[in-house]
Amino acid sequence: MTRTTTRIDDLPIRDELRGKSPYGAPQLDVPVRLNTNENPYPLPEALVERIAERVRDAARQLNRYPDRDAVELRTELARYLTRTAGHEVAMENVWAANGSNEVIQQLLQTFGGPGRTAIGFEPSYSMHGLISRGTGTGWISGPRNEDFTIDVAAAEKAIAEHRPDVVFITSPNNPTGTAVGADTVLALYEAAQAAKPSLVVVDEAYGEFSHHPSLLPLIEGRPNMVLSRTMSKAFGAAGLRLGYLAADPAVVDAVQLVRLPYHLSSVTQATALAALEHTDTLLGYVEQLKTERDRLVNELRAIGYEVTDSDANFVQFGRFDGAAGSHEAWQRILDQGVLVRDNGVPGWLRVTAGTPEENDAFLDAVRELKKEQS
Ligand code: PMP
User: Which cofactor does it need (predicted)?
Assistant: First the structure.
């Protein structure tokens, strides 16, 4: 078919999508890519074999739809959380989808939507705002302190004023790496219940990398609180697309109202189950990455950069001279073969913890940059 000169805005698309760009970091072909918070370690060969085995079994039944309720997978995810996140949950508390982005989308389809609003405390994970827009949910940008922690009083005030239907709390936060304390989450939960009541979504995509325990125990007795997790980071399985949530069983029942039937393919379920069998090995890589993350923080500070304390598998560093300065630094680092992320936080860049060799290459590049700039 020949391509016409029609552009997106010439099509009868929804008004709120006009003039907008799709989300996505540049996927550039450079030697060291530390820009998308991926896990640098490929899955171990024994796990690759196990995936092949499980997928082969699943393939024999691909003429059938998958288990719509993903019972075996949710049971294993519940066991994983119970074992590692300090709180007992069962299959009924857990729901899974294609990446935590889809979990968030299902939550917004259920609890947000036209005439409703969601709030996040920015800078934070920009997809919360974008998925809100995609589901017709109004987006409110809440404040943060200068040091990127959540200003509890200001956040409570914003919740009381806007009475949002959904509140996002990202801990550890992306792109800053900042963990949120249980006391802050509880204060915002109380504020959100007093104002509406609304659903509080704790996005713990980077939870396994934190110095602090998971916020999972907070869901106990709080039916309007949801914890969202992913296998993209700690499990080193970004390509798998598997995210999940833990909450009161009523929340799990509620998202059934919007989920597409058979949304999670049998191949996805089989692969995720295989990965869960190798949890201990994969969590071993997480320990190595935490050590590397702490090394990046210390060495960046020793070189003379400002660094935000990080509980994630990435580090926010600066300060550069505003948005132009961070963009220029991003380019200079790229010129040396290392891709980091310019998230649009003026004066700051974000680097994902890679292998020790990748991190060395990054540190050499920023040492060079510091020399040039001082
Ligand atoms: N939440 C946060 C805070 C993230 O940074 C990301 C990925 N960058 C996600 C959710 C989505 O991850 P996925 O869809 O791969 O599970």
Answer: pyridoxal 5'-phosphate
**CA 117 to centroid of ligand 1, rounded, Å:** 21
Tell me the CATH number for domain 24-43+280-373. 3.90.1150.10
Pocket test for ligand 1, best of 27, 124, 174 (most atoms within 8 A of CB): 174
| Delimiting residues of CATH 3.90.1150.10 domain(s) in the chain | 24-43+280-373
Q: Whose CA is nearest to atom 6 of ligand 1?
A: 205
Q: What tokens appear for 67 in the block? A: 């288990």
**H/E element, 53:** helix 45-59
* Ligand 1 centroid distance, CA of 356 (Å): 24
Measured CA to CA, the distance from residue 12 to residue 49 in angstroms comes to 48
pLDDT per position as a tens digit, 318-368: 999 999 999 999 999 999 999 999 998 999 999 999 999 999 999 999 999
One DSSP character per residue, 320-331 reads -SHHHHHHHHHH
Q: Is cis: bond before 249, omega within 30 of 0?
A: no
pLDDT at 168: 98
Number of H helices, E strands in the chain: 11, 12
22 pLDDT band, cuts 50/70/90, is confident
**Sheet strands (E) in the chain:** 32-33, 94-97, 117-121, 138-142, 166-170, 199-203, 225-230, 243-246, 306-307, 314-318, 338-339, 349-352
pLDDT at 26: 77
Tell whether domain 45-277 is in CATH 3.20.20.70.
Answer: no
Give how far Cα 280 sits from Cα of 240, 284, 285, Å: 18, 6, 9
Contact residues of ligand 1, CB 6 A cut-off: 37, 99-101, 125, 170, 174, 203, 205, 230, 232, 238, 243
Nearest atom in ligand 1 to the alpha carbon of residue 230 is 16
